Design the sequence.
């Protein structure tokens, strides 16, 4: 299903895609991830594998932004979170310590986890990321949406805040990483 951008003069559009169509795009989407996040090739390969496993999760919603030539220029996806998944469990433990188990459960028990949202760097500033986010969230199932992004002043963080996400956990470092993240949430 194609959803047109707000500005009819734009040369891009977004498509809601199912797991199979998203899986078919993973070589391209992982490359966009690598360029947007400035990741080395070995981490892009690892991300491809992770993304491939995500498409099979319950409640998967995938969005591809395409240019006029139908090339993928951005993407976003997520799924219904659940105990037993690495990100969910790591965040649940940390959030429980910070705000208490009851509040953590209110955010995570029926949550849509936005796993990735990236736009090719050459297309930043065109509103593509916002449209991808809106499209993903419009199809998300759950009482809340949660995500993690770098804990710094950035266009991504501003986008999430402008769409109603609030900080749940700041200064957070995932196991095995040295990068500092913020976990954000929004009631759906």
Sequence:
């Amino acid at each position: 299903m194609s959803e047109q951008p707000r500005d009819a003069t734009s040369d891009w559009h977004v498509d809601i895609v199912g797991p199979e169509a998203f899986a078919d795009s993973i070589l391209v989407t992982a490359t966009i991830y690598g360029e947007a996040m400035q990741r080395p090739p070995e981490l892009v390969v690892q991300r491809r594998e992770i993304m491939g496993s995500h498409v099979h999760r319950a409640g998967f919603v995938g969005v591809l932004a395409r240019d006029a030539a139908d090339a993928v220029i951005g993407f976003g996806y997520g799924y219904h979170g659940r105990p037993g998944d690495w990100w969910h469990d790591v965040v649940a433990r940390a959030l429980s310590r910070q705000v208490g188990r009851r509040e953590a459960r209110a955010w995570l028990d029926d949550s849509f986890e936005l796993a990735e949202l990236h736009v090719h760097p050459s297309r930043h500033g065109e509103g593509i990321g916002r449209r991808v986010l809106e499209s993903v969230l419009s199809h998300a199932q759950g009482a809340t949406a949660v995500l993690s992004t770098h804990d710094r002043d950035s266009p991504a963080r501003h986008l999430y805040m402008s769409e109603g996400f609030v900080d749940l956990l700041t200064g957070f470092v995932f196991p095995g990483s040295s990068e500092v993240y913020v976990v954000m949430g929004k009631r759906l």
The beta strands are 2-3, 12-17, 61-67, 72-80, 111-119, 144-150, 166-172, 181-187. The chain has a mean pLDDT of 94.
